Amino acid sequence: MSTRVAQSRTVPHALEATYDETVAAPLPVVFARRHLALPPVTAVEGQEGPWGSHLGQSRTIVTGDGGRLRETLTELDRPHAFGYRIDVVGGPMRLLVGHLDGRWGFEPDGAGTRITWSWVLHARSPLTVPAVLVVARMWNGYARAALASVEEILGAPGSDSGGTGTG
Predict the structure, then answer these.
(1) Which partner from 16, 58, 111, 120 sits 20 to 30 angstroms from 134, CA to CA?
(2) pTM for the model
C-alpha cells in the first residue's frame, strides 16, 4: 500500500530561480530540525557534482537518528519539477517503509512561484501500514518547516547553496 502526502508554499521569487535554488539547496540546511519522530539531515555523502545534473544521480542522506537513505534522481524537468526515489537502507524507518518517491513541483502563482513537495510512502508490508499513516501525518509539519527553510534560502542575498541539493 502507498500513502501520498503533499505540502505547498508560494514564494515571491521567479520560477526558474526558485527551481535552481531549491534543487541545489543544502539538505542539512533545509532539513535542519527534527519534527516529532522525523529526524534532521546531518550530512550528505557520495554525491558527485551539483545535485540535479542528470537522471540517475545518487547520494546517501545521513539523518540525526543514524538513518542512511539512498536517494536517486528519477525526474528532471527544469523549471517545473524534479523527482527522486529514496530507498530506506538504515535507521528506524527501514522497519516501516520499503521506499518512497518524492517530488518537488514548481508553478507560477501570481508574481511568485508555488512550490509543492510531495512524498509517496510505500509500506514495507501490510502490517506496517498503520505506522506509515502516522509517519505521513508527522511529515506535514516536517514539510512545512522545510518549505519555510527553502523560502529563507531563496531570500538570502547572494545565496550560494553549496551543491548538496534538496531531496
Answers:
(1) 58
(2) 0.87
